[in-house]
Amino acid sequence: MSSPAPFLFLALFSASCVSAQISVVDERTALENQILGSYEELDRDLRLLASVRAVDLDGKVKPARQLSDIRAQAIAARQVHQFNRDDVDELKSAGCLGESLTGKLVGRPCPTAGKDPKIVTRIDRLLQSENQARETILLFVVTTSPDLTQGDLPGLRKAYAEMQRSQAKAGEWIQTESGSWTQKP
What we know:
There is one protein chain. This protein starts with a helix and ends with a strand. Helix 5 crosses helix 6. The protein has one domain. It is built from six helices and four strands. The protein has about 180 residues and is an alpha+beta fold. Helices cover about 60% and strands about 5% of the residues. The radius of gyration is 25 Å and the shape is globular.
């Protein structure tokens, strides 16, 4: 019969080499979850509206489904947001746009704009339509959430800004809590 000493030594030695490390990777705030839930709701409404047949069985045009004004505005804003996505991503990568502390997209000095005056017009158009769409969606969140009021709008903007900055890609401009601008590492 062999001695249990080698097995005991191996068991003790291997147990001392194991260590546990717990890291919290991501923790969303309640406001961030509220915003994301509203985006999902608007996307679902967009799919439903797009999938409804425009004619009945007799071939006559059916009237469009009626939506509340704020919901219709939010759906339109979500469409604008989705339409702008490629241009916003391109101009963020070029360093022409950045995410501010207020949740707004902000124009940044960039070499591309100096070379082509059409870029400046494009940036201005994007800033106006994207920021208006973002504000409309945040107003929708406040209006349709029973636990939020207009007084919660500044906090909601701040949560949205944090989401946008955390989703920014490396090299894109973001405004830090101190108000200074930096490229995301």
